[in-house]
Structures are given as structure tokens and as C-alpha cells.
Amino acid sequence: MISRVLVPMDDSEMSERALKYALEAHPDAEITVLTVVGEPSTMWGEAAAIALADDVERTAKKFAREILDRAEEIASENDAEITTDVRVGNPARSILDRAEEFDTVVVGSHGGTMAERLLVGNVAQKVVRRSPVPVTVVR
């Protein structure tokens, strides 16, 4: 029985579909939505703001707030409760670091902008290949 589900979420439609699927397929499970904000670097917009912030964790949560608000809205529409988490770093690595704490991962088939996909690679693909637990990819 699946009792703990990790749903990585960005601002894409696919990640919203993944959350909706997880809520429907695992109605009795504890669902955690994970949002990963870019690795601190002075070369990238959002990440640069995080890297230069006095409180990195608080700034990362600020950038993730819109995504997490949408996740909570989706959960509310499905009469469900979720837990949320924000990490700073590489999305695939951050997801994989948390995956072993769960019974399964439900991930959108793709997300982010085209430029991010070209630079970072397909996060879902990396998670599927390396996850220590089963992964469901939602399209």
C-alpha cells in the first residue's frame, strides 16, 4: 500500500496534472509537494537573487510561494491536505535526495521553459532513471 507520495512541482501544467493524478490515485496517502528553486549562482536571474540574499531559505520560499499556493488550491479543490517543502539546488538531485523517504514519486512529464530543459536536461527522465522508489510519469 502506498502511504507517502512525493510530487515535485514547478509552474508547469504537467506538474499540476501530476498533483491531480496523485490526489486521485492515492486518496489516503500523505502527499508532499516539493518545489526546487534554482541553485544559487550569480549567473542566473532567480538563482542570483537567492545567492545574494541574506536569508537563502526565506528567499527561496518567497520564489516558491506561487507554486505552493497553486498546489494548496488544487488540494483544496480535491478536499485533500498536502504537505509542502522547498529546496534550493538542482531539481533532479533534490527530488532524488528526498525520494527514498516516500513509497513513490509522481512527476509531470516535463516542465519549465524550453531553455531550462535544454540547459538542465529532462528532470523527469533523470528521476525515472535514478529513483530508489517507483516513479509515475504523468502527461
List the helices and strands and how they pair.
Blueprint: E1 4-8, H1 13-25, E2 30-37, H2 45-52, H3 56-77, E3 82-88, H4 91-99, E4 104-108, H5 114-120, H6 123-130, E5 135-138
Family: Belongs to the universal stress protein A family.
Protein name: Nucleotide-binding universal stress protein, UspA family
InterPro entries: Rossmann-like_a/b/a_fold, Universal_stress_UspA, UspA
Properties at a glance:
single chain, 139 residues, Rossmann fold, 5-stranded parallel sheet, 6 helices, Rossmann-like_a/b/a_fold, UspA, Universal_stress_UspA
Averaged pLDDT: 85
CATH architecture verdict: 3-Layer(aba) Sandwich
The SS-based structural class is alpha/beta
Report helical residue fraction. Answer: 40-55%
Class, according to the CATH hierarchy?
A: Alpha Beta
Give the radius of gyration.
14 Å
Q: What is the terminal-to-terminal distance?
A: 24 Å
Total DSSP E strands: 5
Enter the CATH topology name: Rossmann fold
Strand content: 15-25%
Number of domains: 1
For the largest beta-sheet, the strand count, sense and barrel status come to: 5 strands, parallel
Strand order of the largest sheet: 3-2-1-4-5
Low-confidence stretches: 41-45
Element string (H = helix, E = strand): EHEHHEHEHHE
The number of helices is: 6
The CATH homologous superfamily:
HUPs
Q: Label the overall shape.
A: globular
